[in-house]
Design a protein that fits this description.
single chain; mainly alpha; 253 residues
Length: 253
């Protein structure tokens, strides 16, 4: 999420000339990352409140009660997400190993042997996959939508992980400059592949379970209403955000 006020409204309010040059964009790259993380926090907060509202005031009605309780759905999402994230970690491991990212997966100044780095990388991948399962269940109506969500998920975790959380845990400060983003571009490719594979495997697991539920006509209509309908503008918007998120660090770096 990029709020136009930073680049557009503030100069207009102060009666200064708009500056859309590459130098200005490079100087405000930190604000770009901050807006992405702001959008992430806003979206997760809204989704959490929405799910709590639905659980308390809609699904608590006996007429809307599901065959399986919310606890089982959460456990399924966590399990499928962990398996999908593990698969994504396995697929992107050769790229991270070739670029030298895997041996430094625990920190900038910390080196591991390939095996230790691989084990830690797969463990973190499974944990991140759990978050995908909680956030994106029933969001993908087809493979194209799943890829869009997966790439966006990988892009967000690139900003949240190597650029923010990891430096904060190691040094107490994070570097949102274009130089830092340029140095982490090999990791960005790995995160995009990880997101795509995670989304694909999760979609396969979700569809396998959904086909089993569709055997009961009473549950089939309810599950169809739960899934995001095809034809919405969400995938197109995510592709636009994905293109900006990938191209801007490359151009400004």
């Amino acid at each position: 999420m990029v709020v136009p006020g930073t680049a557009d409204y503030f100069p207009l309010l102060s009666h200064t000339t708009l500056n859309w040059s590459s130098e200005s964009g490079s100087a405000t790259f930190g604000a770009f990352v901050g807006h992405i993380l702001y959008g992430l926090i806003l979206g997760v907060s809204y989704a959490t409140l929405d799910k709590v509202w639905v659980r308390l005031f809609i699904q608590s009605d006996p007429l809307n009660r599901e065959a399986h309780g919310p606890g089982l759905r959460v456990l399924q999402s966590l399990g499928w997400g962990a398996l999908a994230g593990f698969a994504g970690g396995v697929v992107c491991s050769p790229i991270l190993l070739k670029t030298g990212v895997l041996t430094k997966v625990a920190g900038v100044d910390t080196s591991f042997t390939n095996w230790h780095g691989l084990v830690l990388h797969l463990l973190v991948s499974a944990l991140i996959g759990m978050s995908f399962g909680l956030l994106f269940r029933n969001e993908s109506s087809n493979l194209g939508a799943a890829m869009a969500w997966g790439w966006l998920f990988g892009l967000i975790w690139w900003h949240l992980g190597p650029m923010t959380l990891l430096p904060l845990m190691l040094t107490g400060v994070c570097d949102w400059s274009t130089n830092a983003a340029s140095a982490l571009l090999p990791s960005l490719i790995g995160h995009l592949i990880f997101g795509a594979v995670t989304a694909y495997v999760f979609l396969l697991l979700e569809r396998r379970y959904t086909r089993w539920l569709f055997l009961d006509p009473r549950i089939a209509m309810r599950e169809q209403r739960r899934a995001r309908p095809p034809g919405t503008p969400a995938p197109a918007l995510w592709f636009l955000v994905l293109g900006l998120g990938v191209l801007l660090p490359i151009l400004w770096g």
